[in-house]
Task: structure prediction
Amino acid sequence: MTAWLKHPLRVTGRLLWLAAEFVLAALSFVRRCSFCPKHSLPAARASWLQQHCRRALRVIHVESHVAGPIPSNGLLVCNHLSYLDILALVALTPAVFVSKHEVKHWPVFGWFARLAGTIFVHRGKRAATGRVTRVIEETLRSGVLVILFPEGTSSGGQTVMPFKSSLLEPATSRNFPVSVGCIRYELDDGDPGEEICYWRDMTLVPHVINLLSKRVIRFSVRFAPLREGSADRKELARQLHSEVLKLKAAIGD
Result:
C-alpha cells in the first residue's frame, strides 16, 4: 500500500472513479445484454465490454499506440503480461477472451469476466479442453473475435514463453482468419516488468492500487495477420510463437 501513501489523492480519486465505472457497467449490461437473443449475445457482450474498457482506461490513464491492422474477427494470439492486456486490447476491438479458470473467482474482475462471456479453461483438466475448443469454435462462427494467450500464464515481458497448442485446434481448419499481436508497456515512474506485468506471486489488490498511482501508462501493440498457418496444431503453435517474436523485435525498435 506504499503507492497509496505516496499519492493518496490520485489513488483515492481513481478508486472512487473506477468504482463508479463498475456500477455504470453493471447497469449498462442489464440494458444492453440481458434480453439479447442467444445468437447475438456474444457480439452484444463484446461491444458492451469494449465500451466500458475504454472508460476504465481513462481512469487508469493508459495511452495506446497501435501498429498494424487491428483484427475484427477470427482468432488473435498474443503474448500475455497483465490483466491490463484485456482492457487495452478490447478497447481497440470488440472480443471474447479465453482465460484461465482462476480469473473466474477474482473479486469484481471475475464477475465482469463472466458477464463478458469469457471462455474459461481449467488447464489442469484435459477432459475440459475439448469442451472449451468447441466453445471457441462456436464463438468464432458467430463472427466475434476471440483472443487467446497461448503462453498459458503472464510474464514479465523479457521473453515470450513457448505456446501451448491444446486450444489452437479451431485455427487449424483455416476456416477463420488468424492474427498475432505483441504487447509492451512503458512507464516514466517505474519498472513495467514489476509494476504493470502481473506474474510470479503478485497479489491482485496491492497491484491494482499501485497501478492506479501511476501518472500515465503507455501501452503499445503491434498486429499482423498470419498468412499461412499449419493444419497441425503443434506446428501452428510454433509458427505463431515465431511470428510474435518477430513483432516483439519490431515493437522494441
The domain at 2-29+40-251 is CATH 3.40.1130 (Glycerol-3-phosphate (1)-acyltransferase).
